[in-house]
Amino acid sequence: MTRHDLDACLRQLVRLGALTVLLVPAARASHPLIGWLPLWLIGMPLSARWALRTF
User: Fold this and answer.
1) Cβ distance 9 to 2 under 8 Å?
2) Tell me, what's the pLDDT at 1?
3) Residue 14: how many CA atoms within 13 Å on its side-chain side?
């Protein structure tokens, strides 16, 4: 998997996560095992993409 493929995959994950948070009210809540869901659906893919592009 090349760097460009990984960037495209992360971009798609951010889009899907944002769409999920917007359309599914349960995705805006917190889960007892993993914590706040918007962090994992949007924040973590965004930070991974930032790290991929910066470093």
Assistant:
1) no
2) 84
3) 14
